[in-house]
Amino acid sequence: MLKIDKINVYYGAIHAIKGISLEVNQGQIVTLIGANGAGKSTILRTISGLLKPKDGSIHFEGKSIAGIPAQNIVKLGVSQVPEGRRVFADMTVLENLELGAYVRSDKKGIQEDMETVFQRFPRLKERVAQLAGTLSGGEQQMLAMGRALMSRPRLLLLDEPSMGLAPLLVKEIFSIIKDINATGTTILLVEQNANMALSIANQAYVLETGRITLAGSAKELAASEEVRKAYLGG
Ligand code: ATP
Question: Which residue range or ranges hold the ABC transporter domain (predicted)?
Fold first, then answer.
């Protein structure tokens, strides 16, 4: 479904992504794990069109998407939940969700998807008129995920959904991610919580300073001594 081949990404003179290739197959949860600054967010931002690779290629469902405008990538079926949620604080929950559908014009479909989001996140339904900036961290994460789902993505990019959340909420968010995947959405998940990420993923990649150092099934990586030592607390 998504195929990245040997991309290099720079921030000015900083070479953040060094010849990375990776694949996400339809229906799967694929996770990228790695320490702070390894380049995980940079990969997601490059897929979603916020950054342009200097070379290499990115194909989504067979179409080349490297360097095309971000809103066109959303239209093709890829949506990103950014790190730190980035909800629009001065807008209501409802307005944030409506914005997620800005690339669509099928009113009926949008209404159906709004209902699905409310079923998945009942807490958002209770708070439709509340300003997003006054939601708790967990609720903001749910809103950011709900907003991304409003574009009806076939591939959902999640950047550190567990960041800053209490353990119980982390569990809840991961169970929702599994559920979103089970209802047909493919997921590329960036996480520092390697334990949780590997527990729900099919495939995994380990990133170190802009390079992929390990790749395999999530089971294999969770059992690997190297991964256990570096990312799973021994
Ligand atoms: P984190 O979990 O801390 O977000 P990450 O693995 O997602 O880490 P990135 O945010 O992708 O890492 O950063 C990869 C590298 O690119 C880092 O060395 C970082 O300092 C650098 N970088 C990221 N954003 C910028 C930017 N806007 N300008 C310059 N350098 C950047």
Answer: 2-234
Helices 107-120 & 167-182 angle (0-180, nearest 10): 140
Distance of alpha carbon 73 from alpha carbon 80, whole angstroms: 10
pLDDT at res. 227: 86
Around ligand 1, the residues with Cβ closer than 6 Å are 11, 14, 16, 34, 36-42, 83, 192
Give distance in angstroms: CA of 33 to centre of ligand 1: 14
Q: Which residue has the tokens 């469902």?
A: 61
* Centre of ligand 1 from the C-alpha of residue 3, in Å: 22
Percent over 70 (pLDDT), the chain:
100
**Residues of the chain under the 70 pLDDT cut:** 234
Q: What is the pTM of this model?
A: 0.94
93-100 vs 137-149: helix crossing angle, rounded to 10: 30
pLDDT reported for residue 222: 93
Handedness of CA 75, 81, 86, 90 (dihedral sign): positive
Q: How far apart, in whole angstroms, are the C-alpha atoms of residue 218 and residue 201?
A: 6
Q: Could you tell me which of 27, 16, 23 has the C-alpha nearest to residue 50?
A: 16
Under 8 Å between Cβ of 172 and 165: no
Our measurement of the distance from residue 72's CA atom to the centroid of its chain's CA atoms, rounded to an integer in Å, reads 17
16 neighbors 39 (Cβ within 8 angstroms): yes
